[in-house]
Amino acid sequence: MVLDHEDLDLMNFVDKEKLSAPIKSTADKFQLVPEFLKVRGLVKQHLDSFNYFINVGIKKIVRENSRITSTLDPSIYLWSFKDVYVGEPSILNVGSAEVISPHMCRLADMTYAAPIYVNIEYVHGIHGKTTTTSAKDKVVIGRMPIMLRSCRCVLHGKDEEELARLGECPLDPGGYFVIEGTEKVFLIQEQLSKNRIIIDSDKKGNINASVTSSSETTKSKTVIQIEKEKIYLYLHQFVKKIPIIIVLKAMGMESDQEIVQMVGRDPRFSASLLPSMEASIECISEGVNTRQQALDYLEAKLVGSTSFTTSLWQSRDHRMDHLKRWMICFYPAKLNMKDGRALYILCELLLAHVPVRDDNYRQKCFYVGVMLRRMIEAMLNKDSMDDKDYVGNKRLELSGQLISLLFEDLFKTMTTDTIKKVDAILQKLNQATRFDFSQCLTGEKNHNISFGLERTLSTGNFDIKRFRMQRKGMTQVLTRLSFIGSLGSITKISPQFEKSRKVSGPRSLQPSQWGMLCPCDTPEGESCGLVKNLALMTHVTTDQEEGPLVAMCFKLGVTDLEVSSAEELHTPDSFLVILNGLILGKHRRPHYFANSLRRLRRAGKIGKFVSVFINEKQHCVYVASDGGRVCRPLVIAENGESRVKQHHMKELKDGVRTFDDFIREGLIEYLDVNEENNALIALYESEAMKDVTHIEIEPFTILGVVAGLIPYPHHNQSPRNTYQCAMGKQAMGNIAYNQAIKPDGLFAFTYWCWIR
């Protein structure tokens, strides 16, 4: 290639040193803020959560409950779900499906929903004679309300001209539902982290360790508490508290020496365990010494354990059916033994997220050992207690996770009702009567899923007894008084506490809220400090697959606990590696392990929202890829200099580079609240020292979308900013391009009229 004189002159004109120099001011990188909002957006987390449920979550729920068997003859009368998927939004019109748009649903007071299809394999034939197996595709089991701008919405991927043709505003972000013609939005729900150990104390000052376990099949809560220096297990399935030593013996850890080694060889730990050991010795007089005796002891303490064996095989409850299938699969030799239910509770309900493979409870024993050690440390040092108001100990439940819980309950209820219908049909059948089980799933009378989803989203009242979930006001009508008001309602966070509680801790500003939650946008009155809003550049994560990440951790040198002894669990020269609340193993070089994972994340080899946090006090490395974590982007710094150079920003302004390219090339990365504890973040480039690891993109992004419109907020008193957040949502103006054709009942417009 030969360069002419003009090209040579242009190369000499370009200041290479200036372009390769790091950016030196906040104004130079301001363009990153609108580019982030294009990629992530203010409601992107709602869309990601709903898309994950539609594409992945709903398939997991159906797969775990795919096989439906009649209790009268389980060997013959059955059918199973092979696949499930959600179609495009449509309604039946004279026998054919007609595609609908959100604007049509608003005008006609309809629900913007799509059919849920399943492919089933079922049995049909003549009762008492030969039966045949057939398959049927696209069986409708209900209708799923569709979130606007999600992957199943007709607006997805449309340009401005196509959106205008469908009667929609191009600036409308979506993230809400149309239920019976009304726009409904899910409030983000604030909850304590699932599958995490939380050390706390009750009103009497008794220290406890609680874990709210959540797996694809089971959800339960396990509490271990210290009372009068003795340690007990609290589980809903037991009528009274159980000494923790007996629970460990029932899981196969019969040696007291091994239990002490598992907690730690420090004399303070063994002295704290001594009263619990003495309590177990008292139980020896009742015959509790071996694993079998411990299981017998647990069986006697179960709720309704007297007639359990007799009632188990006569019950048609869905939980008893699950237990029967579990016993047949895993413990066929123990079907007639009285310790079957105790084994089931230890395996499936105690720390439900910790798996048990081949009757090996060692991993659960180690998890209990970590809980005991954390409790004793908190008893010896009150600073080891967990702060429930710390943002890193919380998760935000988005619309996809909430609909997933609701769908799981409705789907299991549908299968239970269907089994009852099938049993009733089989009991009345004559020898010459033909049967077809697929008929029990079709028809409007069987669409309880449609009615349940629509009713719950319309009223906002979640009453799921299966998961002990009773909440009100989960959904609200989307505020349309102003454009900024609608954005504020979509980013609103609902508290886990009642608003009438007179507590100061949850209402106070937390240092961990910096950059994650808006410090100004909160209501006045009893909701002050409890109802919050997301900050401008906050993103709420969605679940990611754990399999590749687990394999990567083991390749980086994590030692599996299966080959470790109880004494090696808490050796001072190694750290525990915990992935999403599950103990993977140990690592002797925690900083090397954490830095390796961070380099892989910056190189795009693992998910960009994976978090790695080293807790020096607990001797643990926490790796997180679960959903509901709040995180935000930060510029990576090396030796006090930003990785983002002038030429990167020039390419961004020219349209050659996007925000995702900054993430992909390792110039910017997402950090959650926990990983920020391992980082040193500078506010401005001029303040970056040699040991600074990250630099803020724009300091004002600690504010939310509403508070960010306040002129010079740093010159105001703090209450003034809070007042303006409430009044800014009531400002009159144009709410959307399609406001002239919207059927809303309340509008507030400002007209400028010229009088001649």
UniProtKB/TrEMBL annotation:
<dbReference type="InterPro" id="IPR007644">
    <property type="entry name" value="RNA_pol_bsu_protrusion"/>
</dbReference>
<dbReference type="GO" id="GO:0032549">
    <property type="term" value="F:ribonucleoside binding"/>
</dbReference>
<protein>
    <recommendedName>
        <fullName>DNA-directed RNA polymerase</fullName>
        <ecNumber>2.7.7.6</ecNumber>
    </recommendedName>
</protein>
<dbReference type="InterPro" id="IPR007642">
    <property type="entry name" value="RNA_pol_Rpb2_2"/>
</dbReference>
<dbReference type="InterPro" id="IPR007647">
    <property type="entry name" value="RNA_pol_Rpb2_5"/>
</dbReference>
<comment type="subunit">
    <text>Component of the RNA polymerase III (Pol III) complex consisting of 17 subunits.</text>
</comment>
<keyword id="KW-0240">DNA-directed RNA polymerase</keyword>
<dbReference type="InterPro" id="IPR007646">
    <property type="entry name" value="RNA_pol_Rpb2_4"/>
</dbReference>
<dbReference type="InterPro" id="IPR015712">
    <property type="entry name" value="DNA-dir_RNA_pol_su2"/>
</dbReference>
<dbReference type="Pfam" id="PF04561">
    <property type="entry name" value="RNA_pol_Rpb2_2"/>
</dbReference>
<feature type="domain" description="RNA polymerase Rpb2">
    <location>
        <begin position="577"/>
        <end position="638"/>
    </location>
</feature>
<keyword id="KW-0548">Nucleotidyltransferase</keyword>
<dbReference type="Pfam" id="PF04565">
    <property type="entry name" value="RNA_pol_Rpb2_3"/>
</dbReference>
<dbReference type="InterPro" id="IPR007120">
    <property type="entry name" value="DNA-dir_RNAP_su2_dom"/>
</dbReference>
<feature type="domain" description="RNA polymerase beta subunit protrusion">
    <location>
        <begin position="41"/>
        <end position="432"/>
    </location>
</feature>
<dbReference type="Pfam" id="PF04566">
    <property type="entry name" value="RNA_pol_Rpb2_4"/>
</dbReference>
<feature type="domain" description="RNA polymerase Rpb2">
    <location>
        <begin position="476"/>
        <end position="540"/>
    </location>
</feature>
<feature type="domain" description="RNA polymerase Rpb2">
    <location>
        <begin position="659"/>
        <end position="689"/>
    </location>
</feature>
<dbReference type="GO" id="GO:0003899">
    <property type="term" value="F:DNA-directed RNA polymerase activity"/>
</dbReference>
<dbReference type="GO" id="GO:0003677">
    <property type="term" value="F:DNA binding"/>
</dbReference>
<feature type="domain" description="RNA polymerase Rpb2">
    <location>
        <begin position="194"/>
        <end position="397"/>
    </location>
</feature>
<dbReference type="GO" id="GO:0006351">
    <property type="term" value="P:DNA-templated transcription"/>
</dbReference>
<dbReference type="InterPro" id="IPR007645">
    <property type="entry name" value="RNA_pol_Rpb2_3"/>
</dbReference>
<comment type="similarity">
    <text>Belongs to the RNA polymerase beta chain family.</text>
</comment>
<keyword id="KW-0808">Transferase</keyword>
<keyword id="KW-0804">Transcription</keyword>
<dbReference type="Pfam" id="PF00562">
    <property type="entry name" value="RNA_pol_Rpb2_6"/>
</dbReference>
<dbReference type="Pfam" id="PF04563">
    <property type="entry name" value="RNA_pol_Rpb2_1"/>
</dbReference>
<dbReference type="InterPro" id="IPR037033">
    <property type="entry name" value="DNA-dir_RNAP_su2_hyb_sf"/>
</dbReference>
<feature type="domain" description="DNA-directed RNA polymerase subunit 2 hybrid-binding">
    <location>
        <begin position="706"/>
        <end position="744"/>
    </location>
</feature>
<dbReference type="GO" id="GO:0005666">
    <property type="term" value="C:RNA polymerase III complex"/>
</dbReference>
<dbReference type="Pfam" id="PF04567">
    <property type="entry name" value="RNA_pol_Rpb2_5"/>
</dbReference>
<dbReference type="InterPro" id="IPR037034">
    <property type="entry name" value="RNA_pol_Rpb2_2_sf"/>
</dbReference>
